[in-house]
Structure formats: structure tokens, C-alpha cells
Design brief:
Radius of gyration: 17 Å
Strand content: 5-15%
Number of helices: 7
Structural class: alpha/beta
Largest sheet: 6 strands, parallel
Number of strands: 6
Order of helices and strands: EHEHEHEHHHEEH
Oligomer: single chain
Length: 240
Amino acid sequence: MNRTISSKPQIFLLHYAGGDRNSFRPLIEALQTHFQVETPELPGRGNRMSEPPLKNKQEAIADVLEQIQRTRQKDVPYLIYGHSMGAILGFEICHAMEKDNDAPIHFVATGYPGPGIKESVSIADLPKTEFFAEVRKLGGISDEVMQYEELLDFFEPVLRGDFGLLENKSNQIPNIKIQTPIYAVMGKSEKYALNIRNWANYTETECECQIVNGNHFFINQNFNYLSQVIKNLMNTATAK
């Protein structure tokens, strides 16, 4: 398919566990007049429902990285934004793009306090009731979805796949720092919100951290705030 070439900057939105390319619909609508919005999607969901899910984090990073490189328009600046699992993958994707001499101007990470903070709890193979109880405690699914059994049935396979992907024993805490500035945001009621400054240990440049009202899915009520943050980061970078 031919892509329309635009002079707008790009933003790549990386979805959370159980999510897909449509997970950020309100944010997309708020950004699309200012950005070329790109929505990489992992196999096993959405437009890639027929593809088998990936087994570990490095496979997921390689898959998303290939999508970014394929759609990247080199003559415009870009940002990477990831929520939760998207932030986990996005951090290492920034590092890979830096090595490719095409670094983003900013990495925006939400719903995740950075590497090495969260307790390692394996839940992907738990029975259904226990699985969703743990997912809810971890903030891995919204309260709205938890109310509907048919939605839980729909999301269960992809959620198990995503948590299994992150729990794979081959995954290691990355011993890297990125050159890209980081802007991190977490909801006040998230378990590890007070650890958000941990992100400063993983960049060689500036790191700004904010805590806002809400839980793990604070993004659903704060998309206007997030879109303004993203616009401001791009405007500041391109004005230098």
C-alpha cells in the first residue's frame, strides 16, 4: 500500500498488554492533526489476529522495531510513546533506533516505573479466576472490561500471551542507558508510582517524571493532558 508523504512529525504509539492498534483511540484523535500517528501492533490481535502470538520480549521488540523502521519517514522528527508493556518494549526500541542513528526526540513512558522495580510474579499460566484476579491487582486490565464476562473471554488469550511474553525466563533486565530524553507519567494509585524517578537511571540526558490522579489506566481519563505533553515535547525539541 502506498503511504502519503507528510511533513508532520511522527509518533509511534506502543500498546499495553492485551491491547491493539486501536487502544489509544482518543489519544490518536487528539494528536492526528499535529502528527502522523503510527500504531504498531503485535501478532495475535486486531489486524494480526490470525498470526501466532510471540513467545518472548526480544521477539516482540524485533517485531515492533521492524514496523517502526518500515513506516519511519526519515526527514521528519518523531517520538515513541508506550504504556505499560509498550513502555517496557519502547525503552529497548529507543536504544535500537539510537544505534541505527535515528533516535527519537523523546521517549514518553506511562504506567511503568522503569526496569528493575516491579516484582517478578508469574501469572500467565494461572487458572482463569486467579489469573484475572492477579491481572486486576497488577493494573493489567481496566475496571470496565472486568465487568463483562464475554470481554474477559475475548481478552484472555491475548492477555495470557502478553504476560507470558514478559515473564519468559530468557528476558533480562536491560543493562543499558538511552541517549533519548524520557518523560514518564504514572497514576497516583499505581503500586509503583513513587518509584517513577527510577527512569532517571536509564537515560544519559534529562528525565521528567509526573504523577497524576488515577490508576493504571489513568490514560483513558487524561488523554487531553497526554496529547498536550506530547505536542509540547515536540514543539520544544523542534524549536531548538
